[in-house]
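Researcher: Quick test of sequence recovery. Tokens follow.
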């Protein structure tokens, strides 16, 4: 087993590294008396990351593989608490694809590569198309008429007309 490159190991029980090892590609191996070098199968968590179940000192822990890779191989001199997947693929736990970051940096990166897009028709709760919005903006009548026509609130019509919403059009 390789020595740790990162003082952030305190985030994970130090005894873990006596029994388990993780490669730079994100494979986790168990080194118990019964299973010398057995690859541990992981699963995809509800958040989309790969997790593995480890047993240390009689306790069970479900650990995120990308966190284990980062703790072991990536220096974290600024003690940043989060780990970013550079390519945006949460199951790619290769050390070259990971970097320590803040929550803000992680969110900015997600927007920059298109993982989080809440504009226009890509917004999950969108009720109007871009054509609808343009029609609403051109309409010179009473806002209530447009609200009833598109089954939306009058305040939404006002926000569209004033370009508080749908600014990108």
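Model:
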């Amino acid at each position: 087993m390789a020595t740790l490159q990162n003082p952030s190991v305190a985030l994970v029980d130090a005894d873990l590294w006596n029994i388990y090892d993780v490669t730079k590609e994100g494979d986790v191996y168990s080194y118990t008396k019964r299973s010398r070098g057995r690859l541990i199968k992981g699963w995809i968590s509800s958040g989309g990351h790969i997790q593995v179940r480890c047993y240390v000192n009689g306790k069970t822990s479900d650990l995120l593989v990308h966190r284990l890779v980062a703790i072991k191989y990536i220096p974290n001199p600024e003690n940043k608490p989060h780990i970013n997947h550079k390519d945006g693929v949460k199951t790619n736990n290769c050390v070259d694809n990971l970097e320590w970051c803040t929550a803000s940096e992680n969110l900015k990166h997600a927007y920059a590569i298109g993982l989080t897009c809440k504009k226009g028709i890509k917004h999950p709760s969108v009720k109007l198309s871009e054509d609808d919005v343009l029609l609403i903006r051109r309409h010179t009548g009473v806002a209530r008429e447009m609200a009833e026509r598109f089954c939306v609130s009058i305040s939404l019509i006002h926000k569209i007309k004033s370009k508080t919403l749908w600014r990108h059009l």
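Helices lie at 16-19, 65-73, 103-112, 130-138, 143-150, 154-161.
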